[in-house]
Amino acid sequence: MTTLERRYRRLLTWYPKDHRALHEEEMLAVLLAASPPGRSRPSVRDAFDLVRGGLAIRLRRIASPGSRRRWSSAVGLATLLAPLTLCGAQVFRTAWYIEPFTFDQALPLVVNALPYALVTLLVWLGRRWAAIACAWAVAAYVVTKLAALPAGTIVLGDVLLVYGTPWIPGGTLLPALPELLCAALLTLAPSYRPGPAGSRRILAGAVGLPVAGVVAGLLPGVAGPVLMAAALGTVAVPVLRSSVGRRTAALLSPFIAVAVTPFWFTEVVSLTAVTVATAALLGGAAWLTRTAKPA
Amino acid sequence: MQEPTFLILTALAAGPQHGYGIITDVLEISGERVRLRAGTLYAALDRLQGERLIETDREEVVDGRARRYYRLTADGAARLSAEADRLRRNADTAAARLRRDPARRLSLGGAS
Fold first, then answer.
1. A53: which of A42, A129, B30, B96 lies 20 to 30 Å off by Cα?
2. A280, A260, A277: which is closest to A269 by C-alpha?
């Protein structure tokens, strides 16, 4: 194998595996036939053209009809899991922060989780407009509640209130981000369908996870983390092996990150990054779903 | 339809061709103006196959490498024909309007 051929082969790794299996030798023949004698490395324009072609093919694979249907299922699942995560996150925090766990301390926080239990129910019943209205109403309520707090208040999750200098301007509004993301997701999703085969299992796993989280929060010693790790593993493996599951996980990743670990997003850079990434993700998925044809 | 796509379909309208054959044919059709590179060509072939405008005709092994021939499908021929009609109408309109302007008649080389 010549040096030139090896270098072309390396550039061809930009192409999807199935495309390479079919066309690698053929493309190499074309590239070698088109390159002038004595050349030992690809020209810059050829290299750029190969990379661009590979990315174009990968992009088209993402937007292929089969892929669009899987995105559609993933969006359908995400519309159910997003309010469920918010509901679960409230319960999770309740269990995590209150020690020793007593019922009368937990009650007001569990009540906080009820609006999202209602949104989840509305999504489950397919009441699109009711779910959207409810999600935006909760988001608006959270925003006004946070905006009314005195200057210098930092809110971590819904539990910790710290007085001090704000880390970022408007940082007190940060905890409203998951609520706003959830409302945006419900609005952008064209319809709430749980999706075809396979999604039922993913759903069961996703419901089991917050439950395991709450139980893990209540267990003493190492038993809690061990249970949590076991639950995560049991859910994560089948979810990530399914193509709908991977898409759903991608859709919910910024959302879960913000809902579960709000303290990561108290700086302008990380907050901007998560907002831009989420907007791109939700916008892209909404576009793929809205242009998907039914199977 | 973009020009490289139009030229690739035109190249295949004459009969099945392999990748390098398409490149040299497109160069000739376009009067040495469009020199397709491998990345552009194979991205276009992937898209056209996805749209079922072209398909694989046959494979040959030359110098130990697979050489795949592509051919136009019926859909591809119809699309190319429609696009050629559209371009012809546009060109005819442009030429007709230029002829109507007396100041430009001489530069078009017309005798009228």
1. B30
2. A277
